[in-house]
Automatic annotation (TrEMBL):
Residues 124-218 form the OmpR/PhoB-type domain. The keyword NAD does not apply. Residues 2-116 form the Response regulatory domain. InterPro entries: CheY-like_superfamily, OmpR/PhoB-type_DNA-bd, Sig_transdc_resp-reg_receiver, WalR-like, WH-like_DNA-bd_sf. The lineage of its organism: Bacteria, Pseudomonadati, Pseudomonadota, Betaproteobacteria, Neisseriales. The modification 4-aspartylphosphate is found at D51. This is DNA-binding response regulator. The keyword Cytoplasm applies.
Amino acid sequence: MRILLVEDDALLGDGLKAGLSQAGFAVDWVCDAMAADAALAAEPFAAVVLDWNLPRGDGLSLLKRLRERRLSTPVLMLTARDALEDRITGLDAGADDYLVKPIALGELAARLRALLRRAAGRSDPLYQHGELVLNPATHTVTLAGQPLACAGREFDLLALLISQPGRPMSREQIEAALYGWGEELESNAVEVHVHHLRKKLGSDWIKTLRGVGYMLNPAKAEAAP
């Protein structure tokens, strides 16, 4: 899933981007409030990791503007402010979660996964579609109880499709959700990943809706035990 990281500390930002990328997120990183505002107006993001103290505006004011515009993207605020009043202020301004520095990368990734579940109206940490089960936390997939090896982008694409049951996604939507700024992207990258997944899952697991996009075969969901 594609995440916007808003953090002006170069060392911290670099570490968070690298760590979240290793955890399976596609991360775009900006260093000030105005750049974040422009990015959110132009691109779709699954969630935002937002520092409170920023150049060219502050995170709290940016958050308030986003909520005034009815942007429902989950926001996790990062700050060195650990006073109870500050946490209350951030949450009441529209933050969905709050993490005080210094930050443990594992906890940040887990909190983001929880935010994404809640945004999708889910409570189960596992995604299941019939006999297919995907665990975002451990980056594992099983089919009919047997482990299924998926390379990085294959896993990301499968996670995206299984999180959108019954909803076809176009190639453009998939690219926007899985690839960050500056990443090398071949014109047929999505088709290649779909092809590889079909070889592993079976050709009928991923449906192509001509002129629309891709989705997991709804009939496969009926095979759930």
